[in-house]
Amino acid sequence: MTATTSYSQLTRDISGNIAALHKGVPGVMKGFGDMAKAAIADGALDAKTKELIALSIGVANRCDGCIGFHTKALVRLGATQAELDEALGVAVYMGGGPSLMYAANAVAAFREFAGAAAPATA
């Protein structure tokens, strides 16, 4: 994926494919959904912090779908650009150069879901 990828379209496409998969393996998908809800629920860490962690893992594992879904959730949860940047810094630290490329994609996805324009480049 590049910074010109539409993460809105990507998440819609994946959601459609997941819906089809849900019909084929409903028990597996219910179990995954229940696990996701339990993992992100507020506890010692709040949901926003957990989504920042999830995004960092998605970046380090080079998962475009993860970037789309977790940045969308972060916008909904009121994450700031500064919070996103710090979480992505940890992802780059843990994943090196390839994570840096995906961190750049995560910035683009966050801006897309937040409705912000990309900054001008030189």
Helices and strands in order, then pairings?
Blueprint: H1 7-24, H2 26-40, H3 47-60, H4 64-76, H5 81-114
Helix pairs in contact: 1-2, 1-4, 3-4, 3-5, 4-5
Please give a structural write-up.
The protein has 122 residues and is an all-alpha fold. The chain has one domain (7-114): AhpD-like, CATH 1.20.1290.10. The protein is built from five helices and no strands. It is globular and about 40 Å long.
Task: Provide a quick synopsis of the model.
The protein has 122 residues and is mainly alpha-helical. It is built from five helices and no strands.
Question: What keywords describe this structure?
Answer:
AhpD-like; mainly alpha; 122 residues
* Poorly predicted tracts of residues: none
Alpha carbon gap, first and last residue: 22 Å
User: What is the number of independent domains?
Assistant: 1
Query: What quaternary form is this?
Result: single chain
CATH H-level superfamily = AhpD-like
Beta-strand portion reads under 5%
The topology string of helices and strands comes to HHHHH
Mean pLDDT: 92
Q: Would you count the extended β strands for me?
A: 0
